[in-house]
Amino acid sequence: MTSDTSSASQVIYRKNEPSDLRTASDLIHYLESAGFEMSVPINVDEIAKALSINIVYDFNGIKDDFVGKIEFGVNNWPVVTLNPIENTYEPRRRFTIAHEIGHYCLHSNQHRRFIDTRKNMSRTGSYWDTYEYEANAFAAELLMPES
Ligand SMILES: [Zn+2]
C-alpha cells in the first residue's frame, strides 16, 4: 500500500454528523464559499484533500476484485483505496474517486466501509442498492456540475 505524500493541502472541510451535505451541488457550493477554486474539469483529487480524505493505491484490489473502497478509520478519518488496474483509464479513476466522495458526504454516518465493484458502480447493477445508486448519482453530478 502506498500513500500520496506529495503535498499536504489544507483541509477545509471536516465532516460533522449528522451530514449537512446532501448533494454534489451542496458540496460544490460549500467548497466555493470556503475559497476552493472550482473549475472544469473538476479536480477530484484536490476535493478529496480538502475533505481530509486520504487516497491510496493497493494492488491487492486485483485479487479482492474491487474497483475502489472507502473506510472510516481511527477518529473517523476517511481512507479511499483504489485498485490501480481498474482505474488506469483517467475518467474511470476520477469517477471512482467522485463515487467514494459521495459515500463520504452521504453515508459515512451509516456504514464503516463501502467496497465497490464494477457491478455496483454500474447503472444497472446499482439500481436496487440505494447507497450505490446515490453515490453514482452524486459522482455524475460532481463531475458534470450544471454551472
Ligand atoms: Zn459505492
Model description:
- The chain is an alpha+beta fold.
- It has one domain (24-143).
- Helices cover 36% and strands 14% of the residues.
- The chain is built from five helices and five strands.
- It has helices spanning 24-33, 44-50, 61-64, 90-107, 130-143, and strands spanning 2-3, 54-57, 68-72, 78-82, 113-116.
- A five-stranded mixed β-sheet has the order 1-2-4-3-5, with helices on one face.
- Helix 1 crosses helix 5 and helix 4 packs across helix 5.
- It starts with a strand and ends with a helix.
- The model is unreliable at 1-8 (pLDDT under 50).
- The structure holds zinc ion.
- Zinc ion is lined by residues 99, 103, 114, 116, 120, 132, 135.
Draw up the topology in text.
Elements: E1 2-3, H1 24-33, H2 44-50, E2 54-57, H3 61-64, E3 68-72, E4 78-82, H4 90-107, E5 113-116, H5 130-143
Parallel strand pairs: 2-4
Antiparallel strand pairs: 1-2, 3-4, 3-5
